[in-house]
């Protein structure tokens, strides 16, 4: 048994220690935001945050994650109350097929936590490991820009 902290909640899983996190998230914890894309850590559809950094969950065994903070798309918001990035991705209509979007959002979340006001070069560099076969990259960049602006406005209004 392994205990993982996923979206702030301690969860005990029964998968073997070498099981990739993606399978544990989807099969045991029923968190289906992260997608299986290539299974080789090359496309990014499976990206989640571990201690605030994006990782390919399809190649990360759970034995490396005990005591670490794992965040998935589900930890950022819900369909009824989407988080700032999720809302911006919806507003910019970034999804064509939608397969890459969860990974894109997670990598963008890590960027915005590190650099609250990123420039386009920062955004492009952060999203570089993610593949979008539909070619909606420009809408995705606009969504990250929009989320950064909305988050800055919300932060200023909260002061």
Automatic annotation (TrEMBL):
Coiled coil: none annotated. PROSITE patterns: 2FE2S_FER_1, 2FE2S_FER_2. The keyword 4Fe-4S does not apply. It is an enzyme of class 1 (oxidoreductase). Residues 1-76 form the 2Fe-2S ferredoxin-type domain. Pfam families: Fer2 (PF00111), Fer2_2 (PF01799). One of its GO terms (molecular function) is oxidoreductase activity. PANTHER family: BLR6046 PROTEIN, OXIDOREDUCTASE WITH IRON-SULFUR SUBUNIT. This is Nicotinate dehydrogenase subunit A. It comes from Ancylobacter tetraedralis.
